[in-house]
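Inverse folding, one chain.
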């Protein structure tokens, strides 16, 4: 698993703001999201990319 800083770096490399890492980790660990589709505060294009890279 990636650390928050590693996740942030990868997101920035793909044109996303660094705060997306916090949003993703909140969805996974606090809200217990089971799929990328549930992460509704993320852009749809990012959710699609994440689902393809990390099914």
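Residues assigned per position:
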């Amino acid at each position: 698993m990636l650390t928050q800083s590693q996740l942030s770096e990868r997101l920035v490399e793909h044109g996303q703001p660094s705060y997306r890492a916090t949003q993703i980790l909140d969805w996974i660990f606090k809200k217990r999201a089971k799929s990328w589709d549930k992460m509704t505060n993320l852009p749809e294009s990012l959710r699609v990319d994440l689902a393809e890279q990390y099914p």
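The mean pLDDT is 96. The chain has one domain: 4-53.
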